Amino acid sequence: MENKILGIHHITAIAGGAKRNFNFYSKILGLRFIKKTVNFDDPGTYHFYFGDEKGNAGTILTFFPFGEGIQQGRKGSGMATEIGYSVPKGSLEFWIKRFERHNVIYNKPDVKFGEKYLTFLDPDGLKLELIESKTTDDRKAWETEDIKIDVATKGFHNITLTLNNIKATAAILTDVFGYKLIDQEKNRYRFATPAIENAAIVDLVELPNERGGHVANGSVHHVAFRVKNDEILMHFREVIDTLGLGVTTQIDRQYFHSLYFREPGGVLFEIATENPGFTIDETLENLGTALKLPPKYETSREQIESLLVKIN
Ligand code: ZN
């Protein structure tokens, strides 16, 4: 098996109210709610996972909804600042009407790298984009009653990182992760890996005078990159450790195995395995329907459930 990074695995962000977050992503954006669990480091807080039918890597957006009144984040350098979703050609009109109807804040569609896109904000101020990708995206979208296959999101198109200087981060992408610089528009540098067709793009935006961002409500906490299995995960652990970047040991996240390190530009990166996946503790049909806890918290289930607000 070749040691390859296969694009984005998941993206994790911070939200305020759990119910509002759940409603926005599952109902307005129409993602499948694939897992309701808790923050493994803070079990009084939910950890929500949204994705396609199976929660395939490259479609998984996760949130820590810390509750109303948490500190608001601030966009800036050293963080992931935009999450891009791939949508079918010609679907942006549908989305504009939908955003109008649900009072979602959005910008007039624009074009970058020859692709039409629509920027919008989630209820906590997180910036996202729907992009009509110019390359083929054969991924099967999750359909809902009012968001059909011809307009539904297909998973990630790209992630954007904002940096004071892109050089060291670009070197991690190219020299360690196997990405290549494929295009540039002004201060936006587009990198992609040839190892996979979708969720393969990372955009680096260079803003030398931008002050450091603050990761809190409405911002991305970390970006996870995908590897096939544990053996490849440990290969990358060794490479990153050799660079002196302070990588964690392997951590069991129940649905995947992970390691974390802060890339030199300041963004928290994770590398995560495809195994074992989200059907390890629920059937495909029932994904997201029950509160799932890792074995170590099962004995405290009653107490944990009493701390969590009901969302559906
Ligand atoms: Zn993660």
Keyphrases for this structure?
eight-stranded mixed sheet; 312 residues; globular; 16 strands; 35% strand; 2,3-Dihydroxybiphenyl 1,2-Dioxygenase, domain 1; binds zinc ion
Largest sheet strand order? 2-3-4-1-13-16-15-14
| Largest beta-sheet characterization | 8 strands, mixed
Q: What is the percentage of strand-forming residues? A: 25-35%
The CATH topology comes to 2,3-Dihydroxybiphenyl 1,2-Dioxygenase, domain 1
Low-pLDDT segments, ≥5 res? none
Bound small molecules, by name, code or SMILES, are: zinc ion
Look at the structure and give the CATH class: Alpha Beta
CATH architecture heading: Roll
Q: Helical amount among residues, as a percent range?
A: 10-25%
Specify the number of helices: 5
Average residue-wise pLDDT: 97
Question: What's a concise summary of this model?
Answer:
The protein has 312 residues and is an alpha+beta fold. It has helices at 18-28, 92-101, 167-176, 230-242, 301-307, and strands at residues 8-15, 32-39, 42-51, 60-65, 79-87, 110-112, 115-121, 127-132, 156-163, 180-185, 188-192, 201-206, 220-227, 251-252, 256-262, 268-276. It has an 8-stranded mixed sheet with strand order 2-3-4-1-13-16-15-14.
List the helices and strands and how they pair.
Blueprint: E1 8-15, H1 18-28, E2 32-39, E3 42-51, E4 60-65, E5 79-87, H2 92-101, E6 110-112, E7 115-121, E8 127-132, E9 156-163, H3 167-176, E10 180-185, E11 188-192, E12 201-206, E13 220-227, H4 230-242, E14 251-252, E15 256-262, E16 268-276, H5 301-307
Parallel strand pairs: 1-4, 5-8, 9-12, 13-16
Antiparallel strand pairs: 1-13, 2-3, 3-4, 5-9, 6-7, 7-8, 10-11, 11-12, 14-15, 15-16
Bound molecules: zinc ion.
